[in-house]
Amino acid sequence: MTKRADKPITLADVARRAGTSTAVVSYVINNGPRPVAAATRERVLAAAAELGYRPNRIARALRSRTTGVVGLVLADASNPYFGALARHVEQALERRDRLTLIGNAGYSADRQRDLVDRFLAAQVDGLVIVSAEGGDDVTDRAEAAGVPAVYVHHGPSDGRARVVAADNHDAVREAVAHLRGHGHRHIAFLGGAHDAGPVAARRTAWEAAVAGDPWAALLRCDYSRAAADSLTRRLAADDALPRALITATDEQAIGVLSGAWASGVAVPGRLAVISLDGTPESAHTAPALTVTRQPLEAMAEQAVELLSGRDSGAPGVHAPLVIRRSCGCDED
Amino acid sequence: MTKRADKPITLADVARRAGTSTAVVSYVINNGPRPVAAATRERVLAAAAELGYRPNRIARALRSRTTGVVGLVLADASNPYFGALARHVEQALERRDRLTLIGNAGYSADRQRDLVDRFLAAQVDGLVIVSAEGGDDVTDRAEAAGVPAVYVHHGPSDGRARVVAADNHDAVREAVAHLRGHGHRHIAFLGGAHDAGPVAARRTAWEAAVAGDPWAALLRCDYSRAAADSLTRRLAADDALPRALITATDEQAIGVLSGAWASGVAVPGRLAVISLDGTPESAHTAPALTVTRQPLEAMAEQAVELLSGRDSGAPGVHAPLVIRRSCGCDED
DNA sequence: CACTGCTATCTAAACGATTAGATGCGATGA
DNA sequence: TCATCGCATCTAATCGTTTAGATAGCAGTG
Known about the structure:
Two copies of one chain form a homodimer.
Chain A: H1 11-18, H2 22-29, H3 38-51, H4 57-64, E1 69-74, H5 80-95, E2 99-104, H6 109-121, E3 126-130, H7 138-144, E4 149-151, E5 162-163, H8 168-181, E6 188-191, H9 197-209, E7 218-220, H10 225-237, E8 244-247, H11 250-262, E9 272-275, E10 290-292, H12 296-308, E11 321-322
Parallel strand pairs in A: 1-2, 1-3, 3-4, 4-5, 6-7, 6-8, 8-9, 9-10
Antiparallel strand pairs in A: 10-11
Helix pairs in contact in A: 1-2, 1-3, 2-3, 5-12, 8-9, 10-11
Chain A binds a DNA duplex (30 and 30 nucleotides) through residues 8, 10-12, 20-24, 26-27, 29-30, 32-37, 40, 55-65.
Protein name (chains A, B): LacI family DNA-binding transcriptional regulator
Domain HTH lacI-type (chains A, B): 9-64
GO molecular function (chains A, B): DNA-binding transcription factor activity; transcription cis-regulatory region binding
């Protein structure tokens, strides 16, 4: 008895049923640019409801030249850090009634460029770029298409691009101060194998914070757990572990923890650790990690805000210190 | 010296420059339904290249009634399991030259329904649903709109919906057999607090696999690390821990590990653990987790295939056993 | 040479919504 | 009573592609 549903309902259908033109229906649907008499509005609303009318966003987009869709270029959704960021960006967009196109660029500048082109062809209203490194020419392409772009976790530093990131200097300073409070003199840092992206900034911040201490060691390895794990085992075997360590990412911190565990090194007794990341996971390691938590939600919100708003000069979002056990504190 | 780029290039621009009609250009661009003389094709291609023409997908979508966009409804992208699944789905779609709209439903059936409606209004060509539980009425809505829908991690069991999932029975049987091989007689199971979704199937599979053993204990807690952690501490304090345990998810397994560590319980010596999940993380816990790895990539591929293809009756994807240390094996 | 049959191309009507301009109508004021 | 004003509404152009139907040119055939 139900109507055949394979013919989608259009504005014209609603207009016919309400006995008006498509224009009025449009005016009613989106409190149009012109007013509509109350009685007519009622009729239209009723007709729309009865027919189950759903505006076709594609048609609307073609005419109004705005799709309500934003492209999100992600390095890798299976990385929990990026995944969480993606989720917050999507939700910030949904709050503004926009949809999110997602794509994984997988750490490749080529693929990132490709994705951006595909998104631009889909007429996105904006681009949010959450990539590990590189991909700086994206700004040009987006600009050429007249589409605003915002980098979130890190971005080109030439000042032309809008970049939202945590205030690393601040965070590292706080972490160093905390470890000093535990009596540590020399605070080592575990960064990435190559200097690039936001971790370079974290290293710089660490260098500033420990300036004047020639014994503060700089360690390096890949951002994977495996790499940090084996580095830690190697250092433990050589008896070359520092007593206090700040890691650039949770992945590395967790690798350090498992490497230390495997080598019989006590954390935080023999080795105190603070990570500059703060994924939810960090609360459930053994021992629980003390971190400076990346303010993902605030960053996502600011990024989306920046997409529409004017150049609010993105002053860097504060990353709070979350004290757990790996630093030497004994809360429970 | 460059052209003002704010006026996007259209088919008509290319046609004018090539001295043809828009029809031929269209035929050339997509090896149209009609042939074009070689010489003309060359001219068109040249003109398009010179102008940097990019077809407007929105206009194309409006006319051809197919957007090349698929909606991906996700419970929560910050969960690494879902994140990885999302990534594989996106990449399987990209291989077929389609774009992915993403949305986080956050374990709420209402939000899921809402998202599906938004996606349908955006005229998606298909829907991939990766949600934890519930949301079964989505099938109806999609069907009414004539859009194919596939559930991935779990879905309604009424047989009307297309569901791609790992073969849990098979996986659990293998895990139980392996633990028995280590000499364990009674193999406990840690499931979710409430019976629902795919974990119910895992529990059922476990019940089948340990049938006849009245001492095989069924434990329950939330899927969070915190819950599993505190449950483990409690059981350890009461000296009520089993000797061999299969957990429904890695999150729980990791919680068990940290709870055991905090309670001085040796894994795998006092408590052997196998998780039915297998996120990348499971390789880097202390000790490394033995798991039946969910075949995420294969599942994603099959889901996307199912979206276009006919009802290939989704026979369940095999989840291989990955032997590490938490089961009692001593590989290194 | 008239006619048929191809091929290569052009013309123009969709797709479904938005919105500027035209229109109709009742109320108001002179 | 007529011109005027405003409001509510209608008409139709438009966004950029796709594609069915019309057309033109040319070769082959009787």
